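Query structure, 543 tokens:
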């Protein structure tokens, strides 16, 4: 009810939003429950994994049902004797179902133990991008809900998939079965057909899981071959908190960045240093954009990603400069406001023109902190992946840190950290300690956090896909291995049954195969001798 009222209020407010607040007529908003917002990024993943686990359950059930059918086929004589002495068919089915349910419950108990071990083994490599799975696995536990579901699923699967073998085994032809020996008995058409159907279903489900695993492996390889648009090797990143009243003005931040850059570049092994408000592959935020010249059809022409950078940023990541120039030391608060744009922004706004020396107005109408004069485009750089490796680069405008307004600098200082990036000539983590020491001394002890290499940042951006591939490969590998063992066992059992069918019952019992000297053949068993002696005794008594 509350969601319905919220959606109704949103529908009433939407025209006002587009008329006076939205950046462009295409912008809008929607109302969603908080639960859907939290799990929206992993819903598809969890559904795929649930389907994979369901396939594994079906494959295991088909496997067990096939083995129960083979086992029941080998007990045909026993079941026939029970029926001959008065056991009803429903009682025989009940006994076989009980055996199947007990086997299923034992398997469910072992599955719980393996699940607990698997959770403890997978949590250390968990990427941390799935909601409610925190770093301390506070929400991961085999509680009573999981145990109850496992017991119920084990009972139902044992009941359902044990029913077919039980019904098949209870259909016995008493005269023909009792004439056979207890050692081996042939299998009928119905038993072979049911077993074949189970094998076909098992192989089909395993093939589906195998195809899914191969597709994820293909995605894994494709992500590794994507060009991110920057060089990630030998780059160290550090986040510095700017929650200080002394750094609320752009001039103070410019001095901090300049002093830090000079002192860090004097360290042995450091090649070039820069700063920014966000790193590639970690997203960002957009601002409305007005291109000087074309008429407006709303508050702005469109929106584009915005980020501030210092001198050295493009050299750290080796982002190519296609036209014009990048940020330099002359771009301060007293010079003409400039901006550098990427190639994706050129394709969107100037598909057939030259954007150099064009003017753009950024952030107009957002708030007083964003009010600034028009900026002149002085450079075009190559595209770099801003959100993820599997997403196309979005339009980005780079603004010199020294030319950001005081209001926006104060806002950034409260909301986002200042990110230092340094390209080194040696492994970057080996210079982590001296770089941190210099930054703390230079800034008066401002805290530093999230010290990472750019290789780690890139690995974290694909961690969820890698984890998904690992899980599905584990599932598919275990299923394929289980199918292989089951098919081998099924082949052996079918071969044994076929060998038994080729020998007639009389040949197996030894009747009519006595040698002339009156001795039994060597392959006759003790049971055969006892059966023959009992036959002679019965014949003598009748005589």
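Result returned for the query:
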């Amino acid at each position: 009810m509350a969601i319905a009222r919220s959606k109704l209020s949103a529908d009433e407010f939407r025209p006002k939003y587009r008329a006076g607040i939205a950046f462009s007529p295409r912008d809008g908003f929607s109302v969603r429950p908080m639960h859907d917002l939290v799990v929206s990024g992993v819903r598809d993943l969890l559904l795929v994994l649930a389907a994979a686990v369901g396939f594994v359950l079906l494959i295991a059930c088909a496997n067990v049902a096939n083995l129960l059918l083979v086992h029941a086929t080998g007990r045909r004589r026993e079941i026939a004797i029970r029926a001959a002495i008065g056991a009803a068919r429903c009682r025989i089915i009940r006994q076989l179902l009980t055996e199947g349910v007990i086997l299923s419950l034992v398997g469910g108990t072992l599955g719980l133990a393996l699940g607990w071990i698997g959770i403890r083994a997978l949590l250390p490599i968990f990427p941390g991008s799935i909601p409610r799975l925190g770093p301390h696995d506070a929400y991961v536990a085999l509680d009573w809900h999981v145990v109850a579901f496992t017991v119920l699923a084990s009972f139902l699967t044992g009941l359902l998939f044990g029913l077919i073998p039980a019904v098949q085994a209870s259909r016995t032809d008493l005269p023909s079965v009792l004439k056979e020996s207890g050692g081996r008995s042939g299998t009928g058409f119905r038993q072979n057909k049911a077993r074949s159907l189970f094998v076909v279903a098992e192989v089909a489900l395993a093939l589906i899981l195998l195809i899914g695993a191969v597709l994820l492996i293909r995605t894994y390889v494709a992500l590794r071959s994507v060009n991110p648009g920057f060089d990630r090797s030998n780059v160290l990143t550090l986040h510095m908190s700017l929650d200080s009243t002394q750094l609320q003005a752009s001039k103070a931040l410019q001095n901090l960045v300049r002093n830090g850059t000079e002192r860090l570049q004097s360290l042995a092994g450091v090649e070039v240093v820069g700063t920014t408000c966000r790193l590639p592959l970690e997203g960002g935020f957009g601002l409305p954009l007005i291109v000087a010249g074309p008429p407006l059809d709303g508050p702005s022409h469109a929106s584009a990603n915005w980020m501030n950078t210092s001198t050295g940023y493009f050299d750290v990541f080796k982002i190519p400069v296609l036209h014009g120039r990048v940020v330099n030391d002359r771009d301060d608060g007293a010079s003409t406001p400039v901006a550098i744009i990427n190639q994706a922004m050129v394709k969107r706004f100037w598909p057939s023109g030259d954007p150099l020396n064009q003017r753009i107005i950024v952030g107009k109408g957002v708030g007083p902190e964003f009010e600034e004069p028009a900026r002149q485009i002085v450079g075009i750089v190559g595209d770099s992946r801003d959100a993820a490796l599997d997403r196309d680069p979005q339009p980005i405008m780079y603004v010199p840190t020294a030319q950001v307004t005081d209001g926006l600098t104060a806002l950034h200082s409260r909301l986002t950290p200042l990110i230092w990036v340094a390209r080194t000539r040696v492994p970057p983590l080996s210079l982590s300690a001296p770089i941190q020491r210099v930054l703390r001394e230079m800034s008066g002890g401002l805290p530093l956090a999230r010290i990472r290499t750019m290789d780690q940042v890139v690995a974290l951006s694909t961690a969820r896909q890698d984890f998904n591939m690992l899980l599905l490969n584990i599932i598919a590998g275990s299923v394929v291995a289980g199918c292989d063992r089951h098919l081998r066992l099924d082949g052996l059992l079918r071969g044994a049954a076929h060998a038994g069918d080729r020998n007639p019952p009389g040949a197996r019992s030894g009747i009519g195969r006595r040698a002339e000297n009156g001795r039994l053949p060597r392959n006759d068993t003790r049971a055969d001798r006892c059966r023959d002696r009992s036959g002679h005794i019965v014949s003598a008594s009748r005589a």
